[in-house]
Each structure stands twice: as structure tokens, then as C-alpha cells.
């Protein structure tokens, strides 16, 4: 399935603004084309929801979440940044592992199984994309997703098609 990435980003962004009125969500997009990515719309939605749910769940003090989008010739990049509790260097390497949760005692009351990020990673990599994390304890986290853009048919090809 071919999915217009920014439509999904905008939709999930608007959903989260509605669901979490106590948070400030910002969306900053440098995407001016309409990049299409080979991914099931539901899968992209699921990944964004996992990342945004986490950002909300692990931001207890500064309730601010920043989404940014950019593109180059081949890829579209989405970043989700929070200013919450952050993740230590040691744990950054492990949070994508199945069932891994930082500080089990502290995060137990927040619910969850430690599966969200491993699912997000599997989905993104399954579509030949990348997901990465940059974080610092006490300062917050940035999750970055990169997905390859599907090249649309060139003009000459479209002409070929319409003439046959
Ligand atoms: P669920 O299975 O419901 O997603 P979860 O949130 O525990 O539960 P993951 O989404 O896989 O599972 O996250 C793994 C761990 O990484 C979390 O338990 C949490 O400790 C840490 N983590 C994830 N996102 C963030 C974030 N934005 N800020 C701080 N810690 C985070």
C-alpha cells in the first residue's frame, strides 16, 4: 500500500492534541511535496501512536511534544521530541528490545509491557526504514524515523501510459 506520509502525521497530530489537551503539541514541517511511502497506513499510524503515547507517558513535568518532518530526494524523516525524563546511554541501547523497560519499579504504575518500541522498530525496518533514538536523562528524548519515498512515475512514463 502507498501512503501519503504527511496526511497520516497530520491526522495523528490532531488526534493527540484532542486526546491530551494538557499537552502542547507542535508540528514543524519542511515537507512541501507530497511524499508517498510504501507502508500500510495503519502501520505508520501505529508507529506514530506508540512514539507519541510514550512521549506523553514519560513527560510528567514539561508537557510539551514536538513533531518535525523533513524530506530529501530519497527519504522522509519524522522526529518526535519530548522534554520528559529521558533515557540513559546504557538504556538507549536496550529500549528497542522486546519486553525491556527502564526502571521497572518506577514505570510499572504507568502500565505497558515494554513491547511498543520493539513493534515500532520491526514495522519500520520491515518497510526498509530506520528508527533511532537520541536521549539524555532529565532532558528528554528524540525518536527519529526515516522512510524511503516511493518515486512517482515520471512525466514521460505517464504520457506513455495515457497514449496506449
Ligand atoms: P508498551 O508495551 O505499552 O509500549 P512500554 O512503554 O513500557 O510499554 P516501550 O514502548 O517498548 O514499552 O518502551 C520501553 C521502555 O523505554 C519504557 O518502559 C520506558 O522506560 C522507555 N521509554 C520509551 N519511550 C520513552 C520516552 N519518550 N521517554 C522516556 N523513556 C521512554
Automatic annotation (TrEMBL):
<feature type="domain" description="Histidine kinase">
    <location>
        <begin position="1"/>
        <end position="151"/>
    </location>
</feature>
<protein>
    <recommendedName>
        <fullName>Signal transduction histidine-protein kinase ArlS</fullName>
    </recommendedName>
</protein>
